[in-house]
Design brief:
Layout (H helix, E strand, L loop, with lengths): L2 H17 L4 E9 L5 E6 L4 E3 L2 E3 L6 H13 L1 E20 L2 E19 L14 E6 L11 H15 L1
Parallel strand pairs: 1-6
Antiparallel strand pairs: 1-4, 2-3, 2-7, 5-6
Length: about 160
């Protein structure tokens, strides 16, 4: 699927949710390994760091979406552990010549690393070779749009795994 077609489909979906009075649900997977590092994605073009994630599909639970998005974008198989927090925000958009505001909720889900399959690095239309993925210290989240309360909840959970 082309990048434009992908964006068009997501915009149409966002518009349909507004018409139904529903939030656009998104999930971010914070996966950690045995060294209590987290897996992060960096856009090499602009230096922006992000967590694996995306939209929750119709009929899908948050846990299922966290697991699916993590695998689709990174090849990592993770076991969802707990919801760390959420962020509400608005995105101004246009569809079919009409301006609208997509109301969104992004849920941050902690996942335990299980394994990784090589050769999986993002969906067509989402990522290109401009992305870099790696394990980092959780402090890297301070360079992302992750809410501070989510970062604090993550630190508290990782401290429990060290004991």
């Amino acid at each position: 699927m082309s990048s434009k077609k992908y964006v068009d489909e997501k915009t149409k979906y966002a518009y349909s949710l507004v018409q139904q009075g529903r939030l656009f649900e998104k999930v971010r997977s914070i996966v950690y390994n045995n060294q209590n590092q987290i897996f992060i994605i960096e856009n090499k073009g602009n230096g922006v760091f992000t967590l694996p994630g995306g939209g929750v599909d119709e009929g899908e639970t948050i846990e299922e979406a966290a697991k699916r998005e993590l695998f689709e974008e990174t090849g990592i198989i993770g076991e969802p552990a707990m919801l760390l927090g959420e962020k509400f925000y608005d995105v101004p958009m246009q569809y079919d010549g009409k301006a609208f505001v997509s109301k969104r909720v992004e849920k941050f889900y902690l996942c335990k690393f299980v394994s990784r399959e090589d050769g999986v690095a993002g969906l067509e239309g989402e990522y290109t070779d401009k992305m870099s993925m790696r394990w980092e210290d959780p402090s890297i989240l301070e360079k992302t749009f992750t809410p501070k309360e989510v970062i604090e909840a993550l630190k508290a959970e990782l401290e429990k795994t060290e004991k």
